[in-house]
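Retry 2 of 3 after timeout on previous attempt. Resubmitting structure tokens to design endpoint.
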């Protein structure tokens, strides 16, 4: 997508062959590019959320595997790199998926052949991610187009967290349809949930929509229900970090509440995701998806820019108080109007997803 008018990606390999990422912990106040040169760099970037979003985590982990093999391509080195990366963040299934893609390619090879193969596979996964998200954009834009035909006025679309190009290599998942529809001339406006505790909506979604010139408004997380009751939301589109075979959608904490409000107000609620986000082994997301619990700091503190332009973090809560920080929740399939994938839009059902991805039928 565009960054100051220039096409950009959230992860790329520069002319010297170094993996580069945008440090998402510095946005929106500073644009900082980091280099990933070792397994530890990649694992750290995922753990502290310099990169985040299920698809981008997956591609970063794939390069992390390659970087690990450059230093140690033995069988033990390989398996231990995989374990290190998989342990960084437990919920997003793309992480495990990408690591397994690399393992499958390199396990049968001699150590000497492993680095090149892993690097090429990581590059293939990055390119695949871009093509997949572009296709999600096309299918989702068709839904937006239909909705716009019926309304004949600018559409209001609500999104939660950041599932834009920063959460992927390019295009995004939930935002891909919005970019595609906007580029096709459909008038729209996006309600951006701030998305406490880390504020990915306020800091990242808003930043990238602004870069692309898409009209949007940041709202406090609790506002969506009110807007829906007053006819100010035409559709909701969110991303997903893991989706079960029957269409339960795990996404950033707070998504479930938006889905309940959308259901109560007859607002269509879509999840946009690549098939690498579908965990075909699970059929009950609420029971079976491990929910990452992050440090209390993210809830207890907030960081921002002072009037003097300094970035500071301040404490919001009483000293020593107990804080819980669940990073994701699961929206049951019955609340999901449809799942937008690279192969088309599916009902959130086992049969619907299996029809689009028959190769996963057991
Ligand atoms: O904790 P994060 O920021 O890595 O969470 C991931 C997300 O941005 C969202 O949950 C997103 O909607 C799905 S990833 C495209």
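Retry 2 succeeded. Sequence:
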């Amino acid at each position: 997508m565009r960054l100051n008018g220039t096409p950009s990606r959230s992860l790329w390999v520069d002319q010297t062959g170094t993996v580069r990422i945008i440090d998402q912990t510095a946005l929106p106040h500073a644009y900082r590019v980091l280099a990933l040169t070792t397994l530890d760099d990649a694992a750290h970037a995922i753990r502290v959320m310099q990169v985040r979003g299920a698809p981008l985590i997956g591609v970063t982990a794939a390069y992390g595997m390659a970087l690990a093999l450059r230093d140690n391509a033995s069988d033990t080195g390989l398996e231990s790199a995989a374990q290190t990366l998989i342990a960084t963040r437990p919920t997003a299934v793309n992480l495990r998926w990408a690591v397994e893609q690399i393992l499958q390619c390199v396990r049968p090879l001699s150590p000497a052949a492993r680095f090149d193969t892993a690097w090429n596979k990581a590059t293939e996964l990055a390119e695949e991610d871009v093509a997949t998200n572009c296709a999600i954009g096309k299918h989702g834009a068709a839904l937006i187009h239909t909705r716009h035909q019926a309304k004949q006025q600018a559409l209001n679309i609500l999104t939660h967290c950041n599932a834009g190009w920063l959460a992927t290599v390019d295009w995004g998942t939930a935002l891909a349809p919005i970019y595609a529809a906007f580029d096709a001339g459909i008038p729209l406006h996006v309600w951006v949930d701030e998305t406490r505790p880390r504020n990915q909506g306020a800091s990242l979604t808003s930043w990238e929509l602004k870069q692309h010139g898409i009209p949007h408004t940041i709202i406090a997380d609790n506002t969506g229900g009110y807007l829906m009751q007053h006819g100010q939301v035409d559709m909701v589109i969110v991303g997903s970090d893991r989706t079960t075979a029957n269409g339960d959608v795990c996404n950033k904490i707070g998504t479930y509440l938006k889905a309940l409000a959308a259901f109560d107000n007859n607002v269509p609620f879509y999840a946009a995701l690549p098939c690498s986000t579908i965990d075909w082994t699970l059929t009950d997301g609420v029971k079976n998806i491990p929910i990452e619990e992050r440090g209390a700091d993210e809830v207890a503190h907030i960081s921002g820019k002072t009037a003097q332009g300094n970035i500071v973090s301040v404490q919001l809560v009483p000293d020593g108080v107990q804080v819980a920080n669940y990073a994701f929740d699961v929206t049951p399939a019955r609340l999901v109007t449809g799942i937008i994938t690279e192969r088309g839009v599916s009902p959130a059902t086992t049969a619907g997803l299996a029809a689009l991805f028959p190769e996963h039928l057991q």
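Attempt log closed. The longest strand covers residues 188-193.
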